[in-house]
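To assess whether the prediction recovers the assembly geometry, we first specified each molecular entity separately, as shown.
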Amino acid sequence: MLFSLMSDPERLVKNVLQEAENDYDRFKGLLKSVYEEAEPQTGQTPKEVIWTKNKAKLYRYHPVKENLHPTPILMVYALINRPYVLDLYPGMSLVEYLVNQGFDVYLLDWGIPGPEDSFLKFDDYVLDYLAKAVNKVIRTSGSDQLTMLGYCMGGTITCMYAALEELNRIKNIVLFAAPFDCSDAGLFSSWLRKEYFNVDKVVDTLGNIPGDMIDYGNKMLKAMPNFYGSYAKIWEKMWDERAVENWRVLNKWVTDGIPFAGEAFRQWIKEFYQENKLVKGQLKLNGKLVDLAKIKCPVLNVVAEKDHIVLPNQSIALGDYVGSSNYELFSVEAGHVSLVVGRPGPKILWPKVNSWLKDAGNKH
Amino acid sequence: MAEDKKYDFLDLGKQFQEMMEKNVSAWMDSYVSSESYASGMGWHLNNYLNLIENWKKNLSQNYNTFDFVTKEDVTRLAGQLVNLENKIDDIQTILETLQDQMSREQIDNSKDDNSKEQNSKTKGRRA
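The predicted structure of the complete assembly is given in tokenized form:
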């Protein structure tokens, strides 16, 4: 082949020059995005803060339709990373989509815990913060019930709350890639074993767990694609402005990790990953047993088939424990993040949530 | 175009790069899944934590010696502020609950009044 290339030096030079030109454009694009452009804007759907507690904020998104859907939606995200992934940018925002569909949408942002919040546990987050946020949504919307939408750990938190809620105020639950059964959590099960990972020492020494440490753990699950692949991909598309912009926004979110409150982290690792107490029916919050069978409202459980952070089996297991007679498992061929903000988000997931909430989720 | 593809000298390099990426990725995946990685990470983490612990202890001792404010002091103060805020928050919750109860009672009372009025009207008509 090399001989034939040598026999056509004109084409060879053309190819080399073309590639050099592409590399120059890439380099120019890289310099521009690193040194010239401001941080990309995220979370642009108009909203207002309607409640705060410590660092937590409850947002209400400004409705765009007059006749709102009667049941408001409260979105609950994980304690790690920022919740604006649900409202990334116009056109790639689940929040914006649901608002445009006529829903009254609320989002609970847990905020960034400081060293003084290292004592916060799931007991506080579920029975104090979330409970009060639910009260506020009910009061503000004037509705008797609400839909809860939990993403990742936010889904686990939502179900813990729903299992302990006694006022029958939850009409539907929608879950995205939420972990429940930690008996087989893939690499996390191996890394977080008691003999290797001394969570007590980690929390006692560090207090809150730095966001970078959590991010590193998540990235090591797929080291090459995360540490190298994502940069290699954008290098290939460096002259495509839209691709670069999308990458910058998502990269901003990925690297925008927040600390995990120390005691909550201790609980998460010990009681969930090491002892799997939630599905064993042994988890207690403020002395109250969390029994998933007490969840009787309709549940839409969305699982990401290619998820390596929360393995599909961890989410699917909920079906064996939840007490709802209207339970639907919905599988999407996507990863943990691309489920919501990748191509499958606006094409598959968002319309599914919309139709389920307007139809199946309202049948009791 | 087929001719172009045939003579794409740089494509060879790209193919080689992709092959290397795939191999390194497979090696990384098998390495991070191994027992030695898990134990090695645990060992490194433990050493790192020992280092941080000693560093924090020494720093705190030095600050105390010079009568400086330590991080723990600031954290304690911030914790007290958070507790105070929680207490105000609890009072606010109680007030809101009372307000809800009162408005519910008002609605119930007005319903009672209306039904009493209607009853007296029907009695009047019968009489």
